[in-house]
Amino acid sequence: MSGAKGYSPLAYKGTVLITGASAGLGKALAEEFHSRGYQVLAAGRGAEALKKLPAISRYSLDLAQPRAGKELARQVLDDGHAVDILVCNAGLGLSGAFGDQSPDDLDSLIQVNIAALTALDRAFLPLMAAQGGGYVLNVASTGAWQPGPYMAAYYASKAYVLSLTRALREEYKGSGVTVSALCPGSIATEFSRRSGRADPGRAMTPEKVAKIAVDGLLKGNGVITPGWENKALHAVSKVLPAPLMAKFVSGYQKKLL
User: Fold this and answer.
1) Under 8 Å CB-to-CB from 162, ≥6 apart: which residues?
2) pLDDT digit string (tens) for 5-43?
3) 37-51: buried (b, 16+ CB within 10 Å) or exposed (e) per residue?
4) How far apart are CA 88 and CA 119, in angstroms?
5) Best CA proximity match to 141, nearest among 227, 247, 75
6) Hey, which of 53, 196, 236, 251 would disulfide with 95, CB 3.0 to 4.6 Å?
7) What's the CA gap between 41 and 57, in Å, rounded?
8) Is this prediction's pTM over 0.90?
9) DSSP string across the chain
10) Which tens digit of pLDDT belongs to each residue from 218-253?
């Protein structure tokens, strides 16, 4: 990032790399950052959808493939881009009984939600620290706060994202780099359908979540939780035992299958 440590984020405009940008929350994040004067590097699986985004560079690739996170980082750096903000938004969901889920689908979920995100954080965090500052936003979920029967691997993957983010935030204190996690609840996108479950209802729009996410990131918030209902769920998850939360989530998820 250009400039010294302690720069004012309100006065600074830079380059943001967003994964999963071709649809849903990723698309809304790309448009939100662009509206605030940031240059967008958009990565996603939908090449045609990426063309419609206000991006200066587009990277069409599938982060479910092995080493795809490393490959994306290589392409971005080979193109000469200095990334000031990294948004790891790409994610896969998988609903249903764990024993009925395809091993290949589970592999893809772990690759996107955990391996690719970790590789991208590893690629860009040291560079940001070296250039004087930056931001990383890892998209977790309200599912990160408790076990999630019938979406077990998805909830577990988001718990990993939240734990990793909190650890990296501590490691990079004093470096000028801010590491934050976004923990949204239901968003009005195709995510639930693609995950194999019904829409849970009362979903926030991706545009509203994107605005809250960018506001929170630039303020330096460690965990960004959009919506009062999701904040209330977080508070409850802190006091109820994990087995009780698992039972509650089990009943909730069964209704959506």
Assistant:
1) 138, 140, 144, 145, 181, 183, 223
2) 333 343 348 999 999 999 999 999 999 999 999 999 999
3) ebbbbbbbbeeebbe
4) 10
5) 227
6) 196
7) 5
8) yes
9) --S-TT--TTT---EEEESSTTSHHHHHHHHHHHHTT-EEEEEES-HHHHHTS--SEEEE--TTSTTHHHHHHHHHHHTT---SEEEE-------S-GGGS-HHHHHHHHIIIIIIHHHHHHHHHHHHHHTT-EEEEEE--GGGGS--TTSHHHHHHHHHHHHHHHHHHHHTTTTTEEEEEE----BSSSHHHHHTS---SSPBPHHHHHHHHHHHHHHT-SEE--SHHHHHHHHHHHHS-HHHHHHHHHHHHHHH-
10) 999 999 999 999 999 889 998 999 999 999 999 999
